[in-house]
Amino acid sequence: MKHLVIGCARSMEKQKHYIAMLITQAIFAGMALFSKAAISQGMNPYIFVTYRQAFAVVALAPLAAFFERKTAVALTYYILLKILMMSLLSTVSLNLYYYSIHYTTATFAAATTNLIPAITFFMAVLLRVEALSIKKSYGMAKFLGSSIGVIGALVFALVKGPHLNFMNLSKENTRGNHSSNYSWKEEWLKGSLVMILANITWSLWLILQVRIVKQYPAKLRLATLYCLFSWIQSSVWSMAMERNISAWKLKWDINLFSVVYCGVIVTGLTYWIQLWSVEKKGPVFIAMFTPLSLIITAIISAFLWKETLYVGSLCGGILLIGGLYLVLWGKNREAEREANDQIVEIKGGTTVI
Description:
It is a single chain. This protein has a two-stranded antiparallel ribbon. The chain has 13 helices and two strands, in the order H-H-H-H-H-H-H-E-H-H-H-H-H-E-H. By secondary structure, the protein is mainly α. It is globular, with a radius of gyration of 22 Å. The termini are far apart. The longest helix has about 40 residues, at about 310-350.
């Protein structure tokens, strides 16, 4: 028995990075599911973002104070202004995301997250942050993967086809008359476009924050400042959009659980796990597990909330995941090529000396 326990412990130790990523993706799936449940029950999406960011500050501030207490980084007014503007971009993205999830589904929200690497690549090329090397295999892989990902998102959003039955659960969620069908399609299209716009905004945030991280490398403190400024911005926007005081009241229900979950667990816990994983395994390792949240979300939505899945959704999801892995393969090959080139340069320099 003792040997069995020791063997299990050693096996867990070897697989800890994979277990951490599985937990992270399950948490992300929960974010889409719980936030959809709260907003579907009538919680204002702008108020949701405000409370989420408030709880995120509460979660991140102690982590930043503890882990970066010995990190001395100067916070100038210029950097602070940059952080303020960047937090505005993240605030816009979050508000668009939660607004759109009201008109779409948790599965669609999880699916379009896989589109972010493709959008980021296209925007980086347009902004000349990244070069488009189509003549090289990794450049072609990134271009094709990004294109396939965009097509997959459009197929997921616009193409339906026959619905898929999971133990005949989706039959209860079928639409009624023609007018309600038309209204639902209109809302779905609006929500899909807004969701894609949210991902575009988030991709722009990812590209622009690279310079700020170099200027202010205290990542936990930086994340805390982002959330703090975003909370202030969201509060102003929410109070302007929703002046009914009763809408701000939180009770012991799914609304409170969702904002605490998204603020503390998603922003706090997963941020720390991903930082640890990036340090140990690199960013590509983390990105490889992103489709897991889509699979978990789709299964839970179908069984618990009778969400209807269509053949078009399945095909779009496959294209999204395929495009994502093609982009990741290209980025991995590019990183290997750059590392090899640096080694050659170092050896060449040593030879000359």
